[in-house]
Amino acid sequence: MQKINRKIKSQIEKALKRGKSILLLGSRQSGKTTLLTEFDFDLAITLARPVIRQQYERDVESFSQEIEALKNRLNKTPLIAVDEIQKVPELIDAAQDLIDRHIAQFVLTGSSARKLKQQHQLNWLPGRVVYFHLDPLTTEELPKQYLNIETMLIYGTLPGIVTDNDNADREQDLESYVVTYLEEEIRQEALVRKLSDFAKFLRLAAAESGNIANFNNIASDIGIAQTTIAAYYQILEDCLIAERVEPFLKEGHTRRRLVKSCKYLFFDLGVRRIAANEGNKLPTKIMGQLFEQFVGLELLRLARSNSKRITLNFWRDFDGREADWVLTCDGVCIPIEVKWTDKPTVKDARHLKVFLSDYNAKQGYVVCCCNKPRQLDEQITAIPWQDIGRLLMIND
């Protein structure tokens, strides 16, 4: 398997050199454990192994005792990796104490924030630990031979899926991901009483990914309360399976009635497709919808890895005018339309023109499948999806 360099590695190295510890969260199979192998740890603890997990569940104090003994033996501050920390969240308290006393430096990884948040006695190590989020692969991380847009829309960009060139194997691995992780571990973690309801919710939430969230419709389809649907979505967020995107509601010159509900995006399009029980032969309309989600996910990931404070929203009014995505950086708003076409026209940007006028913004973009950037008019530029990263550098 070809080694893929993750952009986040250099950021983690820089934080470690500053003497910080690391909390690295990311969905299952996003590459956390592989990334850990690229660092030189004095001790690596994997709580995914039942024997090790049970040891520390029975005796949390042994965790601190072992690391204190290691420091004395090495006569230096050891660097410790703890993989899947959410499986024994009480160890966060022990790690905090060891950090406070300059006994050890940590890289803690986890695939869920839910159990950590449920431990009310835990604080999130303010000032001591730098938080990072490891996403599936971005287009900037993917080797060129894997940059096939149709493949990414259908199979997603989890590292193990991307680097497997057999589509039948990809399909099997994605199905295993949904069955063994989403349908089992998340339900167990959430203590869902009626598993059939959660399974129905998971399928509908995947199918509705990228649409305006409508808790009432989903609740009606399943036959459960809206509050339960809201709780289920929170589970997906906490387990890093869904990304919530809020609407753009900035004050402007507009008097339009704006949609105020949020959107949810499944973190990976391959997982989304399997969870929605869709095949891998998708019509053009669906591919266009997935392309819009792909661009949104890419922008979220690039924004997260950027040193500037960048937010991503969407904009829609009740008359159907919309900007698929709105990037905001240093007060500058950039509306973005996504079109599954290689021949964009200014007609594709008609709603962007409305946004630009209402908010006195300067430039809008159409992200599409064209080969090179095209100037559609004075304020609208069409760019290839491969150039999404340039949108985050507009103000540089």
Q: H/E series, N to C?
A: HEHEHHEHEHEHHHHHHEEHHEEEHEEE
Number of helices: 15
- Helix proportion of residues, in percent? 40-55%
* SSE-based structural type: alpha/beta
Number of domains: 2
User: What characterizes the major β-sheet?
Assistant: 6 strands, mixed
| Secondary structure: number of strands | 13
Report, as a whole number of angstroms, the end-to-end distance. 36 Å
Kindly state the mean pLDDT as a whole number?
A: 90
Proportion of beta-strand residues:
15-25%
Comma- or semicolon-separated keywords:
about 400 residues, alpha/beta, Rossmann fold, six-stranded mixed β-sheet, five-stranded parallel β-sheet, 15 helices, globular
Structure, explained:
The chain has 396 residues and is an alpha/beta fold. The protein has two domains: 8-134, P-loop containing nucleotide triphosphate hydrolases (Rossmann fold), CATH 3.40.50.300; 137-396, no CATH class. Helix content is 40%, strand content 18%. The protein is built from 15 helices and 13 strands. The chain has helices at residues 8-17, 32-36, 50-58, 61-74, 91-100, 114-118, 149-155, 159-162, 167-190, 195-207, 215-222, 226-238, 269-275, 284-304, 350-359, and strands at 21-26, 43-46, 79-83, 105-110, 129-134, 242-245, 263-266, 310-316, 322-329, 332-338, 364-368, 374-377, 380-384. A six-stranded mixed sheet has the order 8-9-10-11-13-12, sandwiched between helices. Helix 15 links the parallel strand 10 (332-338) and strand 11 (364-368). Helix 4 (61-74) runs parallel beside helix 5. The radius of gyration is 22 Å and the shape is globular.
